[in-house]
Amino acid sequence: MIVIIRPDVSKEKIEHLIKWLGDKKLIVKEFHGREQCVLGLIGNTKLIDKDMLTSLDIVESVSDMTETFKASNRKLHPDDSILHLASGDGPTIGGGSFALIAGPCSVESREQIISVARDVKDAGANFLRGGAFKPRTSPYDFQGMGSEGLDLLLEARTETGLPIVTELMYLQDMDEFVEKKIDVIQIGARNTQNYDLLKELGKSTRAPILLKRGLAGTIKELLMSAEYIMANGNENVILCERGIRTYEQDYARNTLDLSAVPILKNLTHLPVIVDPSHATGRADLVPSMTLAAIAAGADGIIVEVHNDPKNALCDGAQSLTPKAFAELSVRIDKLRDALK
Amino acid sequence: MIVIIRPDVSKEKIEHLIKWLGDKKLIVKEFHGREQCVLGLIGNTKLIDKDMLTSLDIVESVSDMTETFKASNRKLHPDDSILHLASGDGPTIGGGSFALIAGPCSVESREQIISVARDVKDAGANFLRGGAFKPRTSPYDFQGMGSEGLDLLLEARTETGLPIVTELMYLQDMDEFVEKKIDVIQIGARNTQNYDLLKELGKSTRAPILLKRGLAGTIKELLMSAEYIMANGNENVILCERGIRTYEQDYARNTLDLSAVPILKNLTHLPVIVDPSHATGRADLVPSMTLAAIAAGADGIIVEVHNDPKNALCDGAQSLTPKAFAELSVRIDKLRDALK
Amino acid sequence: MIVIIRPDVSKEKIEHLIKWLGDKKLIVKEFHGREQCVLGLIGNTKLIDKDMLTSLDIVESVSDMTETFKASNRKLHPDDSILHLASGDGPTIGGGSFALIAGPCSVESREQIISVARDVKDAGANFLRGGAFKPRTSPYDFQGMGSEGLDLLLEARTETGLPIVTELMYLQDMDEFVEKKIDVIQIGARNTQNYDLLKELGKSTRAPILLKRGLAGTIKELLMSAEYIMANGNENVILCERGIRTYEQDYARNTLDLSAVPILKNLTHLPVIVDPSHATGRADLVPSMTLAAIAAGADGIIVEVHNDPKNALCDGAQSLTPKAFAELSVRIDKLRDALK
Amino acid sequence: MIVIIRPDVSKEKIEHLIKWLGDKKLIVKEFHGREQCVLGLIGNTKLIDKDMLTSLDIVESVSDMTETFKASNRKLHPDDSILHLASGDGPTIGGGSFALIAGPCSVESREQIISVARDVKDAGANFLRGGAFKPRTSPYDFQGMGSEGLDLLLEARTETGLPIVTELMYLQDMDEFVEKKIDVIQIGARNTQNYDLLKELGKSTRAPILLKRGLAGTIKELLMSAEYIMANGNENVILCERGIRTYEQDYARNTLDLSAVPILKNLTHLPVIVDPSHATGRADLVPSMTLAAIAAGADGIIVEVHNDPKNALCDGAQSLTPKAFAELSVRIDKLRDALK
């Protein structure tokens, strides 16, 4: 249920109403637009007398919200969300900013991560990505450097000033991620419906969460997973399209679903970014898919760059060299200018 | 790498070899057939001198195992696995036994679960299913009765003697499931690649794990998830086909992939069961899909039965009435006789 | 729009009404049940005054038919259709009969087709299948023996008495198929929406048409394609599930969608058969999928049998040997007995 | 098999070799690069003595072509194909030109088609699209104006000078399309594997064929269908990505597979265009998907424009108004400038 408050109503009166609604066991989400305030009621709204609510002098109108999405819904929050890093410093995400996130699939060594970090920074990246904990389909594959990898990422951050984006896989590592002030916490495709983890991300941190779409996840499921985080307290969610599983598997690993970008931008106020590296699995397709994603309206790109793709411990075939990334970065700027 | 030991080699000699291999940081899986023993080596087998190994007098032959699956692989373990409940009592699963698992989607009340438990037992079920913790796409939907539901299931077990099958969703509930001696622990489709949970299921319990295929999971991924459990110590895994996500969505919720049954039976020694209720989402399709699953070679069926489907809190449309289940049970027996 | 006629209304009165409706440019389908007649009106039914129609003394009731399917709809024609071969002789299809259709993918020589025909007849097949015109994705692949193959099939029919099932690919071959009295004309998956061909099959013949589901066709599309044939005059259509294209491609060519069988049997009065050979592409999966299809309620099976699978010109990997087919046939009989 | 001829070999010698190869029942495709000539041999190349061929003094090298695609293969024809209209006049397609094809789904009346034609021309379109023969899943739906619609398109061509693109559905209409000199003949998604039609398009015309990908067609199948046309004599084929059928169906009709654009451009020398209207089924998604397609490297766009989308007889929801199209056209120009 959505309650639109009249303009110029005092804060006290609104808080009074919120308290009364809270007593009815409803969760109340408060959205402040430029002139008016909107309340979104979540829970058993059948307990509320809608006519009575409408008749209150501070209420402009009440409407049933048949929408499945609540906290993430653009109808309740028409302006783009602008996400800030936990530190308060550094680049913002969404609302016109562009996130160019680049780095290796896995952190492999001090030399590697710092070298790549410098290269991508020079080429224009404003975030460094790198995996310390790697989700692998097989328990027998390389699972990442773990905590040590995380520390190397922090060193690279100190060296370059680039905020870091890295994946959290396990609930028990949450505290470490929070303590080490990881700038953006990534949730991978396999964990998109790991509600355990999602709830904890809502409760334990305010760091932006980069939430990937499931391997064959629907758009609805992606938004509902964002709701799990947001309903538990952390509204800083970045949605990431990363290719979906389809019957077409001969020439690319997944099918990059770029229409998801304008669809999501229409449904939600959250920023939407694209991962062309995992979607295609082929470095030669990354530049054209990056440009296409930006033309489709993406708020950012997360792309794999490796100083030595042929010898990468993981996903080398989809990694750009620093040189190819630098060239792409120039084309991105030109394209973004033209789209303004 | 697979090492086939000559017949009639003494236990001591084999253990000696296993110790030596273990010192090379390899995980050694031991499989005892009727006459011979086979060792499966997992890890960096490049460290081993294959020629040297072959020349040992206790070794018949050594072959590189290019197979992705190891612990679950039928090549290493040609006979069907027969799974026992943790208590040692009760029905076994796999190897010719048939698991007829029935009960409501959710535990809703003492009366409901005991009434359904009695009905399904009378009709021939040998396991009771029921959800206490429910995975829901939306955080705003009914999430199950939790611990209280678990206790009601235990009561129903006491009343009827039927072992229970129920879903574990959260890592933090693992201890409760182990303490309460849940007979079979179900892992739902959304958690199939929650490696956190899978590893813990390997370490903390020897109870059979009923592992559902992902919403759009491949057969390979299902087996690799079983490997996560098995490689961590619990070899009692039941695989469950429950419908896959395809483009066809007009008449059934998912597409039940029955060819997965003979494919899995061919690849692995683990028992394979089928869930026609979630696959189709329609009670009227459950009987024919149950019979088809059995004809395809399934080791069991998990099916939803509710005493009052129209008023079920969850998934009523796919639940059989106790009467319809009793009729189906008669047809199952007749069919199983004919297939012998 | 559906018009249900009162019982005991004279033929003349019904014909009078049909003529009047026909003058309104409506197509009128007449369905005679045991006691009553039902008229299905196709076209712009907005031109009809429904109240007036309801008030006629020969009319029991009138209802808007929102159903997409008309001629094939079970609501209009509750009893199973029973299809007869054009000759009037030979086995019927549907309504409790079982069609066991077997033979090679392609006709390769006189010896081959007659040898296989004898083998499958001895094993219990009541139809012989064999391709003379082969649809191939590549224009550079073997395209079948053409007319010569058709003549060899006719010889095999004379030798064994088995009616034949063979694929028509090209419009220009229609006359030849009609003249040669091909018993059952197959339309392959690639031609399921070749409306040119479907219309002509409605106009030029009354032979049963075995219509395969498209490579990634929906159930709705399959029925609409049947409507193209039926609306043009030939109501003898057999629907065939043959596997659908999904993301799972590692272990079987397609995903056999067996829930389509009860779904179709519920929606339409037309017979529904299953092709486990093309669906799986693997001979070892054919027996279990055949049994599963029958348990799911299929009215028949079309299966590939080749006297020398390893040297078949086409699809050898999915062909049973005559011996394996004979064993399967015994199991089919046993299963069908149990399901009665 | 590919035979690379030495530079500076005389035409006569090459023709002599081609004749000799033709006598061996091989189809020989001749490709002239800037300096050298390459022969592609199609058919049973086992009959050829490869060593003998290699030893000829006019031959530089011979290699087995394991490629599935032949006539369409970029390896044999490294430069982009540039397609000319049958008339020789008008815009070319491919090789750097951009085809902006716009118009209504169906031709509905003289006024409508001429009005839209003028609007799209003014806005920058260089081709007019419009359906006279409409493929419809249901035989009971509007099937287009037929020949009369074709004549109205020709009138619109005379009025505006825009060449026309329109769909051929039925073999029997081929002569009419050829006589009326339809500039570009479209083959719809349902006919992509109608080999009857494809072969005839190879034999009867040299007009460019706009070939759409199947509803759930693979990239391989699309190219093989192009081969059916090309191997029969017409090498003027335009490939069109139009969305594929996937599990995601909540927010767009199909999933537009934009990575197919760079993949196809890499595999083949044929032009590749994109249809964002049918792919998404939603006018509001068309502009962003158009821009994304261009950024992905498409050689053109085919987009639906209707003067009165709400009252369109077909596909109104996906049609742009002329005003929206004009705005999009400005953005296309700006984007193409930036991508140069």
Any descriptors?
homotetramer, 340 residues, alpha/beta, 8-stranded parallel beta barrel, 4-stranded antiparallel sheet, 11 helices, 12 strands, elongated
What does this structure look like?
4 copies of one chain form a homotetramer. Chain A has 340 residues and is an alpha/beta fold. In chain A, strands 5-6-7-8-9-10-11-12 form an 8-stranded parallel barrel, surrounded by 5 helices. Chain A has a 4-stranded antiparallel beta sheet with strand order 2-3-1-4. The two termini of chain A are 36 Å apart. In chain A, 55% of the residues are buried. The interface between A and D is large, with 41 and 41 residues.
Largest contact between chains:
A-D, 41 and 41 residues
Number of helices of chain A: 11
First and last CA, distance of chain A: 36 Å
Bin the helical content of chain A: 25-40%
Kindly provide the radius of gyration of chain A, computed on alpha-carbon positions and rounded to a whole number of angstroms. Answer: 21 Å
Q: What percentage of the residues of chain A does DSSP assign to strands (E)? A: 15-25%
Structural category of chain A is alpha/beta
Unreliable runs of chain A: none
User: What's the oligomerization state?
Assistant: homotetramer
Summed over residues and divided by their number, the pLDDT of chain A gives a mean of: 91
Shape of chain A: elongated
- How are helices and strands ordered from N to C of chain A? EHEEHEEHEHEHEHEHEHEHHEH
